[in-house]
Automatic annotation (TrEMBL):
Source organism: Marinobacter antarcticus
Localization (cell): Membrane
Any GO MF annotation of the entry: CDP-diacylglycerol-glycerol-3-phosphate 3-phosphatidyltransferase activity
Name the UniProt record assigns to this protein: CDP-diacylglycerol--glycerol-3-phosphate 3-phosphatidyltransferase
Transmembrane segments: 6-24, 71-98, 119-141, 153-171
Pathway assignment: Phospholipid metabolism; phosphatidylglycerol biosynthesis; phosphatidylglycerol from CDP-diacylglycerol: step 1/2
Cross-referenced Pfam families: CDP-OH_P_transf (PF01066)
Coiled-coil residue windows: none
Cellular component GO terms held in the UniProt record: cytoplasm; plasma membrane
Keywords: Lipid biosynthesis, Lipid metabolism, Membrane, Phospholipid biosynthesis, Phospholipid metabolism, Transferase, Transmembrane, Transmembrane helix
Catalysed reaction equations from the record: a CDP-1,2-diacyl-sn-glycerol + sn-glycerol 3-phosphate = a 1,2-diacyl-sn-glycero-3-phospho-(1'-sn-glycero-3'-phosphate) + CMP + H(+)
GO biological process: glycerophospholipid biosynthetic process; regulation of developmental process
Family designation: Belongs to the CDP-alcohol phosphatidyltransferase class-I family.
EC number(s) recorded for this UniProt protein: 2.7.8.5
Amino acid sequence: MNLPNLLTLSRIIMIPVFVVVFFLPMQWSYTVSASIFALAALTDWLDGYLARKLDQSTPFGAFLDPVADKLMVAVALAVLIQEYSSILLTIPATIIIGREIVISALREWMAEIGSRASVAVSYIGKIKTTAQMASIVGLLASPPGQLLSDVSIAVLYIAAALTLWSMWLYLKAAWPELLPKND
């Protein structure tokens, strides 16, 4: 067990803490749950940076990191869907969650056939993740109907659009393997 893997595990451990804090009947629960999510998002960047910098990449870390990311985002979006009870938030949230399921399945299948590299993380995916994390932090920090939450919903739509774009790029790269031409 190395530091990058411990940071990844800490992100998973933060998920139930974040949920409990969010639902506490206290005014500060928005700010504290947003801070917990922001800390978890920071560990997402930090664990990858440290794994590369310290040459501590492991198969366990390569497996666990995307799992932790997807769990963290899916749980936060589920909490926000419940809190906001709004189609305006539910649409981009379900696009993001659905894309994560599709791409996870695609990556698993591509790995099985030995073509995992053709669906590696793209630059668009990194921009999408940044927009997604920023919008989720803003949504968690502010009760529905406030300016920050309205701006954060707009950013979530940008993240959802980037999500669809990056999914299209992944599917395009995998298309020759998904539907090979019969000669």
